[in-house]
Amino acid sequence: MSNDNVIEVKNLTMEYSTRKGNVSAVDNVSFSIKRGQALGLVGESGCGKTSIAKSLLKLLPDNAMIQQGQIVLNGKDMVPLSETEMRTHRWSEISMVFQAAMNAFNPVYTVGDQIIEAIETHLPKVTEAEGRAKIETLFRMVGLAPEMMDRYPHEYSGGMRQRAVIAMALSCDPDIIIADEPTTALDVIVQDSILKEITALQENLNMSMVYISHDVAVIAEVSDRVGVMYAGRMVELADTEEIFIRPIHPYTYALMQSFPSVTGPKKELISLPGEPPDLLHPPKGCRFHPRCPNRIEQCDQEQPEWKDYGNNHFCACWNPMEVN
Amino acid sequence: MSDQPLIKVEGLRKLYPIDAGVFRKATSFNHAVDGLNFEIGQGESLGLVGESGCGKSTTGKMLVSLYEPSDGKIQLKVNDDYIDVNNIDRADRKDYRRNVQMIFQDPYESMNPRMTIFDIVGEPLSVQGIGTIAQREERVTEFLEMVGLTPASSFLFRYPHELSGGQRQRVAIARALVIEPNFVVADEPTSMLDVSIRTGVMKLMQDLAERLDVTYLYITHDLAVARYMCDRIAVMYLGKIVEIGPTEELLSNPRHPYTKALLSAVPIPDPRITRDPVLIEGGISKAIDPPAQCRFYGRCPIRDEYCKTHDHPPLERKGSGMDVACYKVAVDGE
Fold first, then answer.
1. Domain assignment present for B331
2. Does residue B156 lie in a domain region?
3. CB-closest option in B198, B266, B281 to A188
4. How far is the alpha carbon of B165 from chain A, nearest alpha carbon, in Å?
5. How many domains would you assign to chain B?
6. pTM for the whole structure
7. How large is the ipTM?
């Protein structure tokens, strides 16, 4: 069974060291993704979604350190690898679609040249002509005119740039791509076409994907499985329909109930009291307990364990929704 | 109470010159806002919705006199008289300022970092010369508690950088409402906030609107947020209102092809529902010296020869309370 997992993350803990002390941005997070599966990571700012993405690619800033855990990609643990070794896996096995498409390209080179550079770095045997042919196919795949490859980034619109970033992520045929808020800065109509593009590509190429977003609605549309993050911890993980129909963690429930929709009956929106915690001094026990409506005595003492609720549904909570 | 609207906008335009130089007059213009007509009733909340670049923020800024319109008339009702916002004498200007306020999008950039929360929220009072220092402090405290910053005394002498985004936006709301204005323009006030905090701020704004009888122009790109905040919604496209009407009617039964596309593009937070396909493509551009035909012509899925050869369609009543600017939509709204 574990063989069709493209990536397995086990007990990943990542800390940033700051002048005020260590901040555990990712705390003991485990999940795995099968070939062709899309995992959505959802949570609010500072919950550790982007830190997970950066850890998976090991594109961490100098003050960040993976303290514990394994990242097993195609059967090999990435955590102990050196930067040089990591480079042989990056882009050819795991690549990333960045959040700020505006800044993902160097303004003084053409977009095509920059993608060729990525291809040449990671697949040294490919010639320039082959590289250009590859980009042509990629551009057609993501809905860009192939001539655009000889243009500079400023000649692209926001949506086109995001498509080019996706083409770049696909350039070395990775097994898994990490998409970090790829449509957040875009208008809805453009967002819609990019989302369609991403899901179609992912299905056609049978690629795995981690899709990171704060937008519950986008996550509902693109992912097969959803992980909910809160303050550096994963609080719930289940298949998409399952988690939307039967959320177990009170935070997941609140997140879904606070999200307005344009369709269906106009439901009452839930608002949570307080704000997410400061990770320099996270609350003891469950990190959600100060804001939790289901809080019981145990919650501020012990960290809840990661429990299996059947149907491939996991949750860490002392007093889950359905038990009541 | 009379049925007269609080604010009346007629033929409002804002043109930005594109190629003006030191010795050269501009020959082409970006028609950011091009001939808007609408009214907002006392206590009503009107949502202005559209993609980036459609002119919604420019409209908001003209209503609070941060931008000067190129053409058109904005009238605000003050003490049962309408004052013309762009031809205002000094005495009326103070009245006008007292009745109109704005809440900005970015709570990180809209506050002076060197001022304390008390100074920030109290500034409108001192500018208007309301009360003594002691009275102002009492008033500021009252409003901070009203926006949920309790105990107010622990916030009064802090600086903006000590507060979170949600708390800052609450300060911005207190600052806008402390002089009890009639009319507030809120420009994407919740778009920078996280979901769990956003709902609280939205509820607060509604609650205060009722308590203080505030009228909002609520600018947002998010139709789902507009659904919860607004009584009526106006959809803008390249400087024009293409459809305006009561919120639920507009969302459940949109008439204009652009509104339809915009609505079907909004992701739904329920994996069991599949959206209708979006029938238009491409992004919004700028209306630089646009041709006389319908602004939406280039992307419209139902255009025909008539649309090509005629001017931009006027807003006309088409079905229950809905005004639509489209030749292809029949009078009964179908």
1. no
2. yes
3. B266
4. 10
5. 1
6. 0.90
7. 0.86
